[in-house]
């Protein structure tokens, strides 16, 4: 995923201000720039493409409706991610999706017992396994790990987006990685 340069930030603010000034057609630039990024996040959690597209659309509708609440104190991308994160989770709760909660007793399995066979498989296989395992995670955990690995968000950015402390994000990422390694190992051994 492309890192946002200062230029993108400048462009975002420029378009946001134009939209706030009543030039609503400028919103198309925001959608074009972030559509793929938002869809990527959503589709990692929502397996049906149609549903993922609906939720992505919902994210942009909310972003447009709440644009006046964007205070320009954080990067626009972070603000938009937060909307994507919250919208996806609340939509999935509404639709009553069933998820495997990461059991607390699982957290007691020592890291050493989870073999690092993951390092020995190809990237294509890894991504395929990752998709399978992501669907088993609760939506907020799946979004967290997607932001970290697939969108190269820093722990600080994830903390801003999810309103979790940095320490909490680190603990969650560690726990999710452990669960994923465990699950991927099970898949490899099939």
Automatic annotation (TrEMBL):
The similarity comment for this entry is: Belongs to the sigma-70 factor family. ECF subfamily.
Query: Which SUPFAM superfamilies does its entry note?
Result: Sigma2 domain of RNA polymerase sigma factors (SSF88946), Sigma3 and sigma4 domains of RNA polymerase sigma factors (SSF88659)
Q: What are the GO MF terms of this UniProt record?
A: DNA binding; sigma factor activity
Q: Which Gene3D superfamilies match?
A: 1.10.1740.10, Winged helix-like DNA-binding domain superfamily/Winged helix DNA-binding domain (1.10.10.10)
Keywords, comma-separated and alphabetical: DNA-binding, Sigma factor, Transcription, Transcription regulation
* Positions of the RNA polymerase sigma-70 region domain: 30-96
Write down the species. Dysgonomonas gadei ATCC BAA-286
A GO biological process of this protein is: DNA-templated transcription initiation
Q: What is the protein's name according to its record? A: RNA polymerase sigma factor
Q: Which residue ranges does the record assign to the RNA polymerase sigma factor 70 region 4 type domain? A: 128-180
User: InterPro entries of this UniProt entry?
Assistant: RNA_pol_sigma-70-like (IPR039425), RNA_pol_sigma-70_dom (IPR014284), RNA_pol_sigma70_ECF_CS (IPR000838), RNA_pol_sigma70_r2 (IPR007627), RNA_pol_sigma70_r4_t2 (IPR013249), RNA_pol_sigma_r2 (IPR013325), RNA_pol_sigma_r3/r4-like (IPR013324), WH-like_DNA-bd_sf (IPR036388)
């Amino acid at each position: 995923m492309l890192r946002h340069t200062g230029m993108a930030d400048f462009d975002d603010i420029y378009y946001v201000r134009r939209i706030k000034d009543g030039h609503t057609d400028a919103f198309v630039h925001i959608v074009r720039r972030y559509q793929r990024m938002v869809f990527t996040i959503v589709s990692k959690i929502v397996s049906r493409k149609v549903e993922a597209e609906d939720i992505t659309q919902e994210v942009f509708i909310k972003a447009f409706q709440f644009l006046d609440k964007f205070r320009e104190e954080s990067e626009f991308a972070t603000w938009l991610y937060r909307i994507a994160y919250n919208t996806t989770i609340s939509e999935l709760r509404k639709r009553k999706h069933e998820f495997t909660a990461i059991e607390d007793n699982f957290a007691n399995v020592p890291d050493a017992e989870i073999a690092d066979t993951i390092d020995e498989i190809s990237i294509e296989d890894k991504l395929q396994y990752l998709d399978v395992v992501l669907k088993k995670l609760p939506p907020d955990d799946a979004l967290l790990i997607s932001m970290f690995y697939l969108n190269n968000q820093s722990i600080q950015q994830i903390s801003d987006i999810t309103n979790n402390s940095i320490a909490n994000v680190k603990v969650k990422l560690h726990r999710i990685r452990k669960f994923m390694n465990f699950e991927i190992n099970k898949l490899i051994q099939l």
